[in-house]
Amino acid sequence: MSGHSRWAKVKHFKGGIDAKRSKIFAKLSKEISIAARLAGGDAAMNPRLRMVLLKCRASNMPNDNIDRAIKRGTGGGEMIEYTDLHYEVFGPHGVAILVELSTDNKNRTAAEIRSLLAKNGGTIATTGSVSRLFQRKGQIIVLREAAGEDQLMELALEAGAEDFKSDAEGFEILTDPARLEAVHKAVEAGGIKAAGAEVTWLPVSTVPVNDAKAAEEVNRLVELLEEHDDVKDVYSNAEFPA
After folding, report:
1. Domain for residue 2, yes or no?
2. End position of a domain, from candidates 74, 94, 109
3. The model's pTM
4. Chain segment 154-183, per-residue pLDDT in tens
């Protein structure tokens, strides 16, 4: 999502996105089918599928859609070979962007992404020059009205969370990626519903984008990347004014 705000993705899923909902579900269905094709449709035995299902819950994806996607992945038929790609990008105004994709045609996707970047102020960065600006973390988001701070913090830390943050909108729990599921289960076992839970890339430091025109340019590039059919996730270290 545009910007590094912990609430950006929650608002993306929960807010006024009716026009984009079908596209979000289509992308999640593709991720489910890929995960099921690679390691089976049993989420208990398939870590990649479990992670996708957490994203599906955050976006309120109907169970029927999920079940159909799993069946497509495990039901045989023509085998489509997907390749996971990871692009490191410098966007407008020095903003760093990570792009994760799954594609059945690397050459086509590469050409389309390079063209999109060239037209919108982005460039492919050398390997490591952008990823070093981020850290891989498990992230759980809980809205303030969903939990009491003391109870949530105790549940999270006892389950192995690394950090707990609070602000006016709610709570952010950070974990080692390997501990995300355990901490998430502990939170929900305490009767608290998370608004989002995923393994994500968080910026080590952010780049302030205070000018309205600059913010528009950065957001445009990020949104165009997100809309590409092969793109799974986009992360940036842009920081916008509240």
Report:
1. no
2. 74
3. 0.85
4. 999 999 999 999 988 899 999 999 999 999
